[in-house]
Predict the structure.
Amino acid sequence: MGRPTVSEPNTPRPADSEAVLVQRAAAGDHRAYELLVIKYQRRIQRLIGRLVRDVDLVEDIAQETFIRAWRALPQFRGDAQFYTWLYRIAVNTAKKALLELKRDPTVTEAALRSSDEDDETSRRENELISESTPETELAAREIAAAVNAAMEALPDDLRQAITLREIEGLSYEEIAETMNCPIGTVRSRIFRAREAISARVKPLLSHQSGKRW
């Protein structure tokens, strides 16, 4: 099969559940696979964009990801969610491309929000960003830069865990499957990553909240 292409922005019909589409695609149904590509291509591109610094590489790596996934579909056993499986292929494809270019895979997402409603750091950050003034815009950029620096400084296992949880929105179970480790290890890595990021961001938040605008 050549490169999977999408000629029209069609979307799957409600009756075409993901499980059915995956099953049909695994059996060689090109149209079913195109519908899966439509569903996930933007999400995969965003993911790859966080792993590489060169925007020109994103589309090529995403295309290669879907080609590899198509070829591997007959071996997909459904032990994990389809997107979790596709995510692994995307990450491995991005890392391979970067290694070939002699670059280090790093996360370049500048903004990171906590999904916990009681997370004080997230609340303060959102309050600053919601105020549209030159001062608060500068504060938001400083916070984003601090988060980005903290993310890049994390060990690979912590960075991947926090990215999967906070940016990709995966459950702890899905992260454990993706990273091939116990859920307890996932929780520990995410906790340690949050602590490291918080240590970088809190001084800025304290400084900004003490200002009078």
Observations:
- The CA atoms of residues 98 and 176 lie 25 Å apart.
- The chain has nine helices and no strands.
- The two ends are 60 Å apart (CA to CA).
- The chain has two domains: 18-100, 120-209.
